[in-house]
## 1
Amino acid sequence: MTTIHHRTCHICEANCGVLVEMDGREVVSIKGNPDHVLSRGHICPKATAIADLQDDPDRLRRPMKRTAEGWQELDWDTAFREIAAKVAELEGQQARSAFYRGNPGAHDYALSTQSGYLQRAVGARGTFSASTLDQIPHHYAQFQMYGHVSLAAVPDIDRSQLIVIVGGNPVASNGSLWTVPDFRKRVKEMQARGGRLVVVDPRKTETARIADAWHPVRPGTDTALFIGILQCVLAQGDTLRPGLAELVDGSWAKVKPMVDTFDLDDLAQHCGMPADTIRALAAELASGKSSAIYGRMGVSVCEFGAVNQWLIQLINLATGNLDREGGTMFPQPLLDLVGQVGRGSLRTVETARGTLPSVMSEIPTVAFADELTRDDEQRIRTLFVIAGNPVLSAPDGRRTEDALAGLDLMVSMDMHITETSRHAHYILPPCGPLEKDHFTFFFGPLAVRDFGAYSPATLEMEEGAKADWEIASELAQAILSAKGKQVPNLPTPREQLDAMLQASPAGMTLAEVEAQPNGVDLGPLKPCLAERLLTEDKKIHAAPDPLLEDCARFAETLDTTPAGSLSLIGRRHVRSNNSWLHNSKRLVKGPDRCTLMIHPIDAKERGLQDGDLASVVSRIGAVEIAIEITEDIMPGVVSIPHGWGHHREGVSWQTAADHAGVSLNDLTDPERFDRLTGNAVLNGTPVTVEPAQEIVAAE
Ligand SMILES: Nc1nc2c(c(=O)[nH]1)N[C@H]1C(S)=C(S)[C@@H](COP(=O)(O)OP(=O)(O)OC[C@H]3O[C@@H](n4cnc5c(=O)[nH]c(N)nc54)[C@H](O)[C@@H]3O)O[C@H]1N2
Ligand SMILES: Nc1nc2c(c(=O)[nH]1)N[C@H]1C(S)=C(S)[C@@H](COP(=O)(O)OP(=O)(O)OC[C@H]3O[C@@H](n4cnc5c(=O)[nH]c(N)nc54)[C@H](O)[C@@H]3O)O[C@H]1N2
Ligand code: SF4
Ligand SMILES: [Mo]
């Protein structure tokens, strides 16, 4: 007899509802839940990988300790006791400690509620995380304009007539900072009602393929496009629509003079898009029909990431589309995170490299290796890595790797010996994903409908297994005891979730939410900005000084095209997720996906044929990779997906190692970052590409 269990897929931001059919502990099938209020039956090929993750033969089941003789299994109590003793000893030596938090932690509400507790017990100040490799510019712009790092506006796709996507590929990524499961179908529905999708991207992506128009843009130059659009929109008048005008502060008057300092033809030349295309885009966005412009990784992990995210908000504001049906709207989910966590902060942090921005108390990950290797008493000697793989995810992975080798204590919470955790002294593996419960914690506030969904654990915990939150909480207790401190009695994640749900405007209890296994639908997004602004004067801050000043800095970069080199960007594939789904045989099967995409003109110039091995060299390093010649990438640009490079010795994910690929981040450069936010610049890396020389062994 099989049983059907309702779950939310925890892998990506789409948070699809799935139906898991179980026969005892065996997964029989995983299907989309047609009755799920948000995903309506949609799933992607990664959903089946939940079974592969659960049953992964290479997954660690017990704490591991690295010894001179190799990895040794420990019981939990011994692992916690040894780690706690070492943390206390290092604290006694005034050693600096730090955390690196990876992306999967954000998909685990329970861990999210407890990991701060562990960090406080360790006494680690500041955090490195995947956020400064990703979306920190969004948080910065939201804090500056709306007064809260998490007060985000998302395109209201179900009622929109035009969506312009700049530097995002939701057909592959399933949406980011925009929880929009079944994106493809929602686009079809928009097109069926006469709406249009436009994509601006150096590559003709999977999303560009279903779009009504694709405009190639030179990597790292979108600021010119946004300023150009804004200039054209404001040339028709800068009076804001009623409803928005009253919400905007006096700095709005500074926007038009700023954009008017630029010449549209210069902007067009800089970004490689014809001035007429920019004019037409502006006219369409401002035509009065409900429309939205949205920008993601491609315009976030770049030198002017914060400015870009700000300009996007300004375009939606200027065209009257902010906080309007079919434009961009602020979700009001079942659990109102914005109302219950602090506004966030913008500060600075002193690093070996000098003063860097610190948004939300993050230390920019571009400085990670520096801080691990600096030669003063501020060197990080104790490191906790929580569900992260910075060797493959952060720029200059080789240097990160070398830096990790010098730690006095490194603890990784991970279920594999990865490129990163292989350097740990202890690895603490969580239970399988089906043994965890789930709530749409960080993603309700980004969803295309007001909603929330809770799913209980599908399987009972295996004997001796622990969820991530239990590991964090029990280790924190052990550390506090070792330091001779009092161990507080904390609420469990479920208790915290229940309290937060009840304190939210929807006011439901966890039990009430749990009784709706298809999710709780609170309806379409609603205009609400007037009540939700969290700036002190309750106004939208249209033109904060640091952003205006950074536009002046941008002006100085116009036309500084690095000659002679190609510009390297990344890419995502629907059957992959950052570095960690490559151990699933069904996801990695088929032709090698870790290839260098190159335009036929650039390949010909270099004497390269499809499938040839090329040597790709940047300031940081070199890789050899098979090339894929395609007209889907613009001339002058090449692309390698990130998250590969599993050839490192000693990793435990065998299937991943068999499909090793090379790491894009062995080429990216930590010296390149967004000055306002410290976010890494991961696209637009200057590289040379040549046929790889056959290495002839010396006699
Ligand atoms: N060049 C380039 N680099 C990039 C990007 C890019 O576009 N280009 N993208 C960046 C982005 S957006 C991000 S978010 C980062 C991601 O950067 P990271 O978060 O550092 O890397 P991941 O690949 O997500 O690694 C997650 C690790 O957590 C483990 N893991 C998975 N699930 C769980 C779990 O439930 N519990 C625990 N304890 N561990 C788990 C996996 O085994 C894996 O080792 O990469 C960034 N790096
Ligand atoms: N299948 C899959 N899904 C994922 C992930 C994954 O690895 N695989 N990762 C998850 C994570 S952590 C995140 S953050 C999201 C990311 O979600 P998205 O941002 O939607 O995904 P990307 O594929 O990184 O899209 C960035 C796009 O920007 C383009 N681009 C690069 N440089 C530039 C530029 O300078 N200007 C412009 N205009 N475009 C540029 C790239 O060609 C690419 O198409 O995806 C999430 N979902
Ligand atoms: S789109 Fe994301 S949430 Fe939905 S099934 Fe795929 S991986 Fe899971
Ligand atoms: Mo990300």
## 2
Amino acid sequence: MDVQTFCRVCNAMCGLVVTVEDVVIAKIRGDETHALSRGYTCAKGRSLGVLHHDDRRLNQPSVGRGDSRTLSDWDDALDDVADRVSASLTEHGPDSIAMYLASGSAFDTAGRRTAERFLTLIGSKQKYTATTIDTPSKPLIAELVGGWSGLTPLWDHESSKLLLLFGSNPVVSHGHSNAMPDPVRRFREFQDNGGALWVIDPRRTETAALADHHLQVRPGSDWLILGWLVRRLLEDHPAAATLNQRATGAESLAATVALFDDQLVSTSCDIAIESLEALLGAVLSAGRVSALTGTGVSMSASANVTEYLLWAFHIVTDSYDTPGGMWFNPGYLLRLDQRDLPLSDGTPEPGPKSRPDLPRRFGEYPCSALVPEIEAGNITTLIVVGGNPVTALPDRDRTLAALSSLSTLVVIDVLPTETTGLATHVLPAVDQLERADLTWLLDSFQLAVAAQFTEAVVQPLYERRPMWWMFAQLAKRLGLELLPQDTELNDETEKRLLMQLVDRSVDPHSLMNSPSLTIASGAVYGWVTANVLPSGKWRLDALALQEEVVDRLENPPRRLTSVLLPSRRLKLMNSQFRDIAPPGGTLEQPAIYASPSAVAALGHPKLVTVTSPFGAVTARLLPDQTLRDDSVVLTHGWGDANVCALTSAATGIDSLTGMVLQSGVEVELRAAD
Ligand SMILES: Nc1nc2c(c(=O)[nH]1)N[C@H]1C(S)=C(S)[C@@H](COP(=O)(O)OP(=O)(O)OC[C@H]3O[C@@H](n4cnc5c(=O)[nH]c(N)nc54)[C@H](O)[C@@H]3O)O[C@H]1N2
Ligand SMILES: Nc1nc2c(c(=O)[nH]1)N[C@H]1C(S)=C(S)[C@@H](COP(=O)(O)OP(=O)(O)OC[C@H]3O[C@@H](n4cnc5c(=O)[nH]c(N)nc54)[C@H](O)[C@@H]3O)O[C@H]1N2
Ligand code: SF4
Ligand SMILES: [Mo]
């Protein structure tokens, strides 16, 4: 039997056709009828059947730490967790219970919503998500300039003529804040349609190889290119004449960017002035532009100013909320255009007790405060909801010690990880083929106003349970009313939870009756300007950011010989799929990548140790001719070769967001053979 569903590994949420023989997942291929992914899948999506049947899967709850961990039944495991939560609530108050919600739950609609409600219901503010270890600069600038942190500008892939990518590699990642299924064909169609693609990246990436132009920029210098472009566009772009009608703060912006001198910018970015002029010419001839950043920017020291200048770039050229530029997806399910959004001027709340300096924004504390809070004894219980903090948070050794010191560490996962290894309670979740779902959390990241509903493709194996059920059961034991209906474990309850979202969607009937993606429309315009912007104008007068721009120009950082860059691998999703290969496929192996001349300078060792001011990692060294000589790549997500040994929350934390420096960390390479 063939069943249509969608992949819930990454933002792209590609359509899948799963062949089920009896209870066995026999094959997975792309769904040709899915209007955005059009039959495309990557190896990860095609290996979900392997994941479903894998011997290493967590199939039964277990309780206890280390050698004393034993398998348990659900009732005993949940009773024990509930007793501990209850005792901690009584003794230490709600903020002693924390949650880390990450990539593994981002696509479990019922589970994620129920987990978040549980935390709210017990009254805890200790919420941490992967957003603050990935890209807090995006919601920050959206809030400061647009008034609401959830505004996500989207590439207008059908009508734009120019796309710039700063530090993002969608051919591998399938998009950062824009979901990009079927990326190669999509970029080729864009080009065939007269569009030009410019990639700004220190690596000649898989996306750069397809691009019309690649600027192999010095790491960390994107903001200089953007500041320079804004300066020149204020002088030359026709839309600049009407900037005051669209935005406040045009004068202070102009004064700030006046400092971006041609020579200074060209030298600091390692990009010839002729190339910068060519880019400017492309912008002027396109009129409106789409430009996106990825983790190369969002994890760098200049993340906030780069994102601010990126927004200024779009607003000066009248490219936001207008055809041919970038649009804002109100969401098929979310329907943001019909809601009262929680507008804000960007003033944060203080951080948690141990680190009040690490600001609380968007309803959560930054991940960089989690370990300090545990060390200070403020958190007794951490619930990890689809995450692997040991390979995601900085200061690996401190993270290991802090997690081991918790009296209760509940980890909900599908496979054993470095983090389940430290847990006191491991709760086995259903995998994505075992649950009904909606394309909910990333509804407004999609390239169309579109959504999909899926039934569970197969029944859960063994004792795997849906996450919504786990939290409903915990709440019941604590005497809390979490879900408005009974919490019996059956498909109907799961569907009822999802139906609350379906009922509010654009067209519930179409959504529930389409086996594949339902599209309401392509790009729509105007709702942000009409409903969201404070007095109808973008706020370019973000003084703290303008001051930071000036400070960065006046005190340029030292030029580093070697820096660590974030970069994703096609076969992985963070620490996932290290051990799960598609049928007939091979596994990715950890490696440190450096340019051929950097490898030669070390004498071609097989093994290399990469050292940062915070720690060292040894792994196999591979030459990568796509890298600049000053750039070193070690993808995050490995257990032994854990890049989190090289990053730290001790210094270099961004004061506005609490973000950790993960792009542009100074490193040194040494042969280790
Ligand atoms: N130095 C450095 N640090 C980084 C990064 C970097 O580039 N460099 N990247 C950062 C970024 S962008 C991110 S998003 C974070 C990633 O941080 P995390 O999201 O914490 O990392 P993952 O490895 O994706 O962990 C997801 C976990 O969810 C589990 N899982 C998978 N499917 C399911 C499911 O259906 N249900 C449940 N309950 N669990 C499931 C997986 O087995 C896995 O253990 O790391 C960040 N850290
Ligand atoms: N296959 C795969 N897909 C994934 C993931 C995965 O692990 N594997 N993870 C998912 C997650 S959690 C996320 S957050 C997204 C991330 O999505 P992307 O941000 O698109 O991630 P990357 O592919 O790592 O692209 C980052 C790029 O930034 C470049 N870079 C590094 N430093 C700089 C700099 O200073 N300036 C510029 N201009 N470029 C720089 C790197 O060379 C790299 O090409 O991907 C998601 N999709
Ligand atoms: S790109 Fe791969 S992992 Fe991402 S949704 Fe598509 S098939 Fe799944
Ligand atoms: Mo991420």
